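In this section we walk through a basic example: taking a raw amino acid sequence and producing a predicted 3D structure, encoded as discrete structure tokens. The instruction is simple. Fold the sequence below.
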Amino acid sequence: MKYEALTKYIEIFEANPLETTYKYEDVDEGFLPMKYSKRSEHVDAFAEDVMKFVADNPELDLYHYIEIIDSYEPGVNRSAKESTDKEYLNKLDAKGILAWIVSAVRAECYKEGVLYEMLKEGILECWLKKLSQLDK
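The resulting token sequence is shown next.
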């Protein structure tokens, strides 16, 4: 199974909490209490495994994930949430699904919390399950 390095995360994400929230309590000297989040180690491992998969499979050209996504519906800008539409999802092959996964991991570099939100909303799970189906 070519994609098992990524699809193994279906079970990992289902079995483990995604985020731990902490609260900064020190209010001395004008500091205000603040909430912040620490990402689950599984989310970090997933992101690392995705980028390792990209590097280990240069024939897929996943560094050009935006162009790959655009090739399925030229001129249509879909959000990640819209990409889980069954009709659209059925148009995608493994390379298309992988491109969406890479786009999520890359988005995390620019906006912390993107992967968590995609996990919470079931978007990554949807992509990983579709990838698992295509891997059989």
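Looking at the output, two observations stand out. The mean pLDDT is 85. The longest helix spans residues 94-110. In the next section we compare this with other chains.
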